[in-house]
């Protein structure tokens, strides 16, 4: 498949999906729920090419929202940068697994985890309203680093919902409010996208013209989404978080159901 062979209607749909994905990712994560399925509509594309091209588009959007949050929310680089570095390594390892292990293996586990996340968020309305750190010092750093490694690996293997998992981990396990968790999650999510690309680029899995075009649309969405999230604050992010988690449960749940019926 070459860029020139794309139907203009499908190309416009891909750009729209990339814009919406950038907006959602900037606020709470989960933009891959739109962007990756849209890429799978491209005639002749393989799942690995779709995953790799999705990472290329997303790396531009997450870089943009990372800068926006860093300027306004100012996450502590001493905590978030080591987490991002470890997550990058995890994503590279996950991408290498994705080349050989079907993503379907992980989907039932992800659905159960998302249901648990939604229930916890609904039943604890005060969760993430304000920052109340659960750990200090070395233990705080260890939990952050372990979270970065695990979610980075997941992002390399599959991807959709990575930002969402990062946010709920930073809120639930570490005690940050939703706005500060989102600021840190964007930086780490940029690192996971970059880590996966470091594996996908050398093996030739990236469709460059399409990925760069979608990356530009992703940047615009990210700029608008991050500005809205910063302006609206924690309550708005929490509400959209529940919407995105619900959509992820439905999408991945239907995938698992369809695979079991085959």
TrEMBL record:
What family does this chain come from, according to its entry? Belongs to the 4-toluene sulfonate uptake permease (TSUP) (TC 2.A.102) family.
| Compartments, record wording | Cell membrane
Looking at the UniProt entry, the stretches that span the membrane are 81-103, 109-131, 143-176, 196-224, 236-254
Instruction: List the membrane topology term(s).
Output: Multi-pass membrane protein
Instruction: Please verify whether the record's keywords include Transport.
Output: yes
Going by the entry's taxonomy, the superkingdom of the source organism is recorded as: Bacteria
Which keywords does this Swiss-Prot/TrEMBL entry list?
Answer: Cell membrane, Membrane, Transmembrane, Transmembrane helix, Transport
Q: What is the lineage of its organism?
A: Bacteria, Bacillati, Actinomycetota, Actinomycetes, Micrococcales
Instruction: Give the organism the record lists.
Output: Leucobacter soli
Q: What is this protein called?
A: Probable membrane transporter protein
* Gene Ontology cellular component annotations, sorted alphabetically: plasma membrane
């Amino acid at each position: 498949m070459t860029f020139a062979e794309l139907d203009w209607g499908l190309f416009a749909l891909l750009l729209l999906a990339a814009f919406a994905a950038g907006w959602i990712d900037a606020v709470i994560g989960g933009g891959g729920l739109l962007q990756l399925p849209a890429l799978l509509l491209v005639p002749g594309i393989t799942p690995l090419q779709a995953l790799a091209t999705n990472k290329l588009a997303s790396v531009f959007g997450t870089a943009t929202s990372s800068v926006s949050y860093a300027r306004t929310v100012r996450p502590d680089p001493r905590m978030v940068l080591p987490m991002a570095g470890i997550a990058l390594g995890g994503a590279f390892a996950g991408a290498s697994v994705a080349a050989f292990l079907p993503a379907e293996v992980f989907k039932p586990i992800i659905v159960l985890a998302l249901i648990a996340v939604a229930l916890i968020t609904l039943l604890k309305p005060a969760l993430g309203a304000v920052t109340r750190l659960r750990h200090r010092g070395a233990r705080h750093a260890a939990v952050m680093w372990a979270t970065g490694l695990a979610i980075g690996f997941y992002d390399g293997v599959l991807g959709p919902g990575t930002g969402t998992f990062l946010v709920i981990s930073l809120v639930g396990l570490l005690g940050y409010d939703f706005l500060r968790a989102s600021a840190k999650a964007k930086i780490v999510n940029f690192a996971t996208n970059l880590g996966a690309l470091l594996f996908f680029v050398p093996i030739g899995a990236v469709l460059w013209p399409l990925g760069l075009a979608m990356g530009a649309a992703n940047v615009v969405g990210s700029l608008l989404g991050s500005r809205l999230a910063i302006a609206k604050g924690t309550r708005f992010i929490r509400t959209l978080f529940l919407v995105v988690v619900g959509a992820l449960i439905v999408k991945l749940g239907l995938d698992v159901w369809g695979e079991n019926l085959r």
